[in-house]
Amino acid sequence: MSTIQIPSKDKNILLGMGAIGIISLISIIMNDDHSHTRLWTNLLHNSVFFTLIALMAVFFICISITAYAGWNVVFRRLWDGMAQFLHIGFVLMAIIALGIYFGWHHLYHWADPETAATDEIIKGKSGFLNKNFYTIVGLGILGTWLFFARKMRSLTLLEDDHGDDRWAHYKTMKFYAAMFLPIAGFTSAAVIWLWVMSVDPHWYSTMFAWYTGASCFVSMIALTILMLIYLKSKGYYKNVSDEHFHDLGKFMFAFSVFWTYLWFSQYMLIWYSNIGEETIYFKTRIREYPVLFYGNLVMNFVLPFLILIRNDTKRKYGTLIVVGIIVFFGHWVDLFQMINPGAYHTAHELGSHATAAADQVVAHADPNAAHDAHGSSFKVGVNIPGLPEIGVMIGFLALFVGTTLHFLSKAPLTPKKDPFLQESLHHHV
């Protein structure tokens, strides 16, 4: 029931991880193109990834409350802490939105006025793909998520202090949880279309929001497992047993399979219909990003499936740590390949005049080098994540974990007056 006290050594580790992230960003800036494409793709990639993980944390809280699911009550405050990263996510996405207004980046082809006026496909989507909609609606949705994350946390803390009539407080929590679920369902699809799918504005998929949502949900489960094992190693969450980890392992296994089903369904339907605007998405990734395209299935399906299919592996901390790291990193890589191809294509078309002039000079000196400059050759950091990309992710991870631990330290680790607490303490499968 107690709050946590993070050892100084672990705080220093988090600070070191944050320093790695900052150094990596500086390295990227110093070796970037004139449009700073690598910098902005990294910011968009990690901001979206960790913000959606925070959304999935509050989403799972609301699902559990609405369904009267008591098995996770004993550690549910961990998800409360994870959800508070939405504060930081709001700021990060606001910076990216401002970048559209002030021309700081070329992440989105539709944001270029000339393209928006002449491209017939983008003109047809202009009611949705415009800077005002991106900013006002996108940040409005994020603000709504943040309101519910804060509300659910405040209600569970209020229950600790004034929860003698436990069911009265639970009914209030259930009211807000039930209200949030359809809001989260519709709005998450909208921002996934805005933030990620519109990087390739000519392409669309009705399954993309499901696919990305499943990816971030299983990443949230993987982080939950890793953080719970860490906290148990520090003497906290003693009441979190192998039974709880078994259920979390089942969620990680099940949603890895579900993600794969969505991956295959999306690919198969687009391959079968053979519509040019759709097939180009996969054609680009198969030809220019083959390591990520095929490695995606290995990391996010084959390895989790083969390791977790045995019942006992879901109860072994060592196995869960290995699979949790694979799944988390694998889905981070998956989002990398969702964003980079479209963003770099746009950057090379809409780059600054200085970039174009430099490319012309290179073209006269070495035609092959000019060909490479336009992104057709294999490049670390473009076609696969390089060390700076991994470093930036480590920095964001430190920020996410640090935020979670900060909020965990502000309240008891377990909601002591939740009506399902005893069920959770004696959970058995």
Helix fraction bin: over 70%
N/C terminus separation: 23 Å
* Poorly predicted regions: 353-375
What structural class is derived from the secondary structure elements?
mainly alpha
Largest sheet: none
Number of helices: 17
The average pLDDT value, as a whole number, equals 91
Q: Topology as H/E string? A: HHHHHHHHHHHHHHHHH
Q: What general outline do the C-alpha atoms trace?
A: globular
Relative strand content: under 5%
Number of strands: 0
Radius of gyration equals 22 Å
Please describe what this structure looks like.
- With 429 residues, this protein is mostly helical.
- It is built from 17 helices and no strands.
- Helix 3 crosses helix 16, helix 10 packs antiparallel against helix 12 and helix 10 packs parallel to helix 13.
- The longest helix has 34 residues, at 317-350.
- It is globular, with a radius of gyration of 22 Å.
